[in-house]
Amino acid sequence: MSLEQKELEYWVATIPVIGPAKIRSLLNYFENENNIYNAKIDELLQVEGINQKIADYIINTKKEEKIKKGYKELINKKVTLITINDKQYPEKLRNIHKNPYGLFYRGNLPREDKVSIAIVGARNCSNYGKEMAYWFGRALSEAGIQIISGMAIGVDGYAHKGAINGKTNTFAVLGNGIDICYPRENFDLYMKIQQNGGIISEYGPGVPGRAFQFPMRNRIISGLSDGVLVVEAREKSGSLITADLALEQGKEVFAIPGRIEDKLSEGCLNLIKQGGEVVSKPEDILENFHINSIKEWNKLKKNNIFLDSAEKIVYASLSLVPKHVDDIIADTNLLISQVLSILLKMELDGFIKQTAPGYYVQSFCELMKS
Amino acid sequence: MFYHSYCGAVVGIDAHVIHVEVDVCDGLPMFSLVGLLSSETREAKDRVRISMRNSGYKIPVKHITVNLSPADIRKEGTSFDLSIAMALLAAFGYVPQDCLEKTIFIGELSLDGSVKGVNGVLPIVCMAKEKNFEYCIVSCENAEEAAIVQGIQIIKVSNLKEVVEYFSGTLVLKPYKSIACEDKNSQREELDFSEVSGQETMKRALEIAVSGMHNVLMIGPPGAGKTMLAQRIPTIMPELTFEESLEISKIYSIAGLLDENESIITRRPFRNLHHSITSTSLIGGGYMAKPGEISMADGGVLFLDELPEFNRNTIEMLRQPLEEHKITISRLHGSYTYPAKFMLIAAMNPCKCGYYPDRNRCRCSENQIQNYLSKISMPILDRIDLCAEAKEMKYNDLVTERKGESSYNIRERVKKARKIQLERYSMEGIRYNGELSAKQVERYCYLGEAEKKIMEEVFEKMELTARSYHRILKVARTIADLDEKDNITSAHIMEALCFRGLDKKYWGDGICR
Predict the structure, then answer these.
(1) Single residue among A298, A326, A351 that ends a domain in this structure
(2) CATH of the domain at A218
(3) Residue A57 and residue A190 in one domain
(4) pLDDT exceeding 70 applies to what percent of chain B?
């Protein structure tokens, strides 16, 4: 009984202590996986960066039955593994620094012939961030762009959500094992993305999410995409790591501007100062990639014109920034009971929504109810 | 030889007549006290004996038995001292027995013979009046409190000797008349709603809540004025009637919170609880059962600031009192029922730091916010009809020229709305909309076709539950009453919906599902 090529690759990709750099040096030295597997400990020690401890570890993981069983389970879980040996390995990733040796995925991989944009941003985003993430996700997806993000809470999640409602596939790159849904709240999204695109991770089944893995996966997010759009980011934010990596990899960086006083926009504004491209509508990104605009879908958000005058006054006093009922009453000079019933009616009709009890915003694009 | 006098024992907020019987006969000299006594009551033996001797009355060397009847009611406290002493004095011939027939004695004796005040005088005096007693002998401390009750003569005494002299006719004591309480009260500073600037929706929510006796949850950042508003809720409630006032005063009397300056509670109570409160002090009880905070808030407001910080088990205790408007505490020595017709006002921050949804300041994650909210018990939330949000105060709101409405104006509207409800429910055994049962909601919160259609749409879109549906109808009914309309219109429903209870689903919409 001997291991097949795929099983060997599975073995290499799941050895916990060696990252992409060490795998690269091992492959350079031994030429293929089989040789690594058959190597004695002395030979392993010859390789740059491999010390006694790591070598012992590698030897310990060489359990044929366990590897065979593990690979079989992988197939049963409908997870595919591709490595740098495969033709399907994304070309875009081959050129980045420390590119992952293997990628586990469920669903599909992004198509190389389509433009991919990464949408990243803060987890604790504001309502503005949510709306923008959803809008850009949806609009770009409608225009045939693949949306790549990290399936986190906040901006990431809303970008995926928008993209799922669009026409094109969306892809989530995880910072933990492929079979783990983290954060748990996004389970629904985890399932939906598999049907409308794919879940990708360089970590094999069962690998828990550890803090250092999340910045690592950002290089894959930026690597897989042709441009990175930062929606909302604080001054020190993980999203900016993705943007930096994108710049290193020679990708476009787009930023959605916010207001100067908003802490959640500081990161974006800094990016713009440093030469990031300002984006105020999805078409700005499309032009960059010479894609026709998406007028057809944009029409959707403009047919909200069946409001009477009092309703118009209330609607006009709202924006994307949550506004308290008291302020609405003060600004409109209408009676409390009148304002309250108007707010409820418009909420039911989908023109506005409540972000927190008592705080209202205009519904920017189609409701995020779905 | 058999002599007797009368006294009272407090059970719950009512009192029973206690018959003090004394038998003095020849035999081995001893002094025994019987009749289901607690230890502090049993100690009366020594207090009475010595205070009598120090007042100059000799106790003959006889076999003395004192019985407090009925013997199946447990006697607690020290209010029996005076009546025991009087029965003994009658037995020894210092006062005629006839004088004691129509008199009730309340007071503790000190070793030097002086009479001291006790808790729970008011319920006993009320009972004495009902049982047609003519005189009530109380200590100086308790005189003001006892004098609230009309139709019984209150005799104020400072020591045992005075009592004896009064009954033997050598000392004339005039019945004590209460100093008009209103004068004292009006001197105190009045709170008023107009002092709170801004917070218009919150004020509106409170007005509705008070009109229909709905419970309210106030959500808002720190310093928005939630506590300030809550403190002013009693000022927009209708003034207390004498019966209500008496009921509340009785509770305060038992708890020992009445004094000479405030002998009767004339304003609605406002009880602001700290979140470290234990279930016993909230509900009542203890070794010697005492009314808890919910009874002290009877007729007024029970304010729970920082609701999520309260011990969950403690808060769960509120469930039955909120429905039944009374609390029965069962203990080894008996069960006590106290009224608890309070209005529950709870306040909380929207998240741990308090500033959500201001994302510039609040860095709580959606998860943390959810966790914070999930600390509140759902069964309690289900009993809260209205939920309103206080907004953070900006400088402009504070210095605004626009002055808020005064408590007086709001109170007048509340009174009108309450009157409508009292008339409507006169046959139902309830008083206000907040007390409507599900079945009564169907009967009294009748909706027209158009309104039904709105509710149907809302029910689907907002995923209401049956309970929240009823809550909204109840609140809509109150809004209609405030509007002095017989039928609930769609505008009333819409407004009620804006104050719908805290439904976790609507919080933040944040977690991406």
Answers:
(1) A298
(2) 3.40.50.450
(3) no
(4) 95
DSSP state of B239: P
The domains of chain B, with CATH numbers, are 2-167 (3.30.230.10), 187-506 (3.40.50.300)
- Do the Cβ atoms of B356 and A356 come within 8 Å? yes
Same domain, A139 and A287: yes
Q: Are residues A239 and A330 in the same domain?
A: no
Considering the domain architecture, whether residues A311 and A271 belong to the same structural domain is answered as no
A332 lies within 8 A of chain B by CB: no
Task: Report the CATH number at residue A309.
Answer: 1.10.10.10
Which token pair is B307? 């609701």
Contact B13, B339 (CB under 8 A): yes
A131, part of any domain: yes
Q: Tell whether A62 is covered by a domain.
A: yes
Query: Distances in Å between the alpha carbon of B366 and those of A147, B296, B355, B362, B363?
Result: 24, 38, 13, 11, 9
Q: Is residue A95 part of a domain?
A: no
Nearest neighbour of B494 by CB, restricted to A322, A341, A368: A341
Q: What pLDDT is attached to residue B13?
A: 86
Residues of B within 8 A of A160 (CB-CB) are: 512
Question: Whole-angstrom distance between the N-terminal and C-terminal Cα of chain A?
Answer: 51
Q: Tell whether B495 lies on the interface with A, counting CB pairs under 8 A.
A: yes
Return d(Cα B301, Cα B305) in angstroms, integer.
Answer: 12
Give the number of domains in chain A: 3
Single out the residue in A266, A298, A330 at which a domain terminates. Answer: A298
Query: Does A5 lie in the same domain as A63?
Result: yes
> Confidence band (pLDDT; 50, 70, 90) for B180?
low
Cα–Cα distance, A214 to A174 (Å, whole number)? 8
One domain for residues A145 and A234 = yes
pLDDT per position as a tens digit, A61-113:
999 899 999 999 999 999 999 999 999 999 999 989 889 999 999 999 999 99
Q: Residue B512: what pLDDT? A: 30
What is d(CA A195, CA A197) in angstroms, rounded to the nearest whole number? 6
CA distance B195 to A18: 68
Q: pTM of the predicted model, to two decimals?
A: 0.79
Check pLDDT > 80 for residue A301.
no
Does A29 lie in the same domain as A7?
yes
**CA-based nearest residue to A71, from A58, A82, A62, A81:** A81
Inform me whether the pLDDT recorded for B510 exceeds 50.
no
Tokens of B110: 């000190």
Name the residue among A263, A264, A355 with its Cβ closest to that of B357: A355
B508 touches chain A (CB under 8 A): yes
Task: Tell me what the mean pLDDT of segment B133-151 comes to.
Answer: 91
- By CB neighbour count within 10 A (0-12 exposed, 13-18 middle, 19+ buried), where does B326 fall? middle
Q: Are strands A252-255 and A227-230 parallel, antiparallel or unpaired?
A: parallel
Cβ count within 10 A of residue A5: 12
Q: Which residue has the tokens 């928008």?
A: A162
Q: Are residues A253 and A325 in the same domain?
A: no
Q: Are B3 and B22 in contact (CB under 8 A)?
A: yes
Q: Establish if A369 belongs to a structural domain.
A: no
Task: Report how far residue B328's alpha carbon sits from residue B340's, in angstroms, rounded to the nearest whole number.
Answer: 10
* Separation CA A105–CA B411 (nearest Å): 67
Residue A181 contacts B where some CB pair is shorter than 8 Å: no
- A20: CATH: 1.10.150.20
Domain that holds residue A41: 1-76
Q: Which residues on chain B are in Cβ contact (under 8 Å) with A324?
A: 389, 391
- E strand map for A63-139: 80-83, 102-107, 116-120
Angle at CA of residue B37, ends B31 and B40, nearest 5°: 85
d(CA A13, CA A207): 12
- Per-residue burial over B331-364, b if 16 or more Cβ lie within 10 Å, else e, is eeeeebbbbbbbbbbbbbbbbebbbbbbbeebbb
